Amino acid sequence: MTDQSVCGKKVAVQMGTLQALTQLPDLSAECEEAGKPEIDVHMYPTQSDANLALTAGRVDGTCADSISLTYQGLLANNEFELAPGPEYDPQPTAIALPKGSALTAPVAEAAKQVIDSPVYDQINAKWHIPDSAKISPEEVLDHSAITD
Description:
The protein is mainly alpha-helical. Helices cover about 40% and strands about 10% of the residues. The chain has helices spanning about 20-35, 45-55, 65-75, 105-115, 120-125; strands at about 10-15, 40-45, 60-65.
């Protein structure tokens, strides 16, 4: 069971996202199973619209990718921030290349080199990337593990 503090709250979300299609409905079902009020989901065409609903006080919170929300909170003059605690159902992010691309190995190696250098911490600090989104060089997919 996840944290139920969101039960009964108004939560803004961008239409068509993982949060809108899966995560909030699952969380809301958990609320109901626990005898608590369901989440009052407010869907918006863009994340900017969802963020505006939050800063305008029309909703209690918003759900989106932690990296973009952190940055968008900064752009909104720090009017909102990530809730404390672990991320709910974090999903990996990737670089996509065509199957069999000659770039697969060099891109993987370049990513490993950047992550293993001081530049990685500088990039994360500059863009306020949450610690939960940082990865180690070992987490970069080994290009030899890719199959057709």
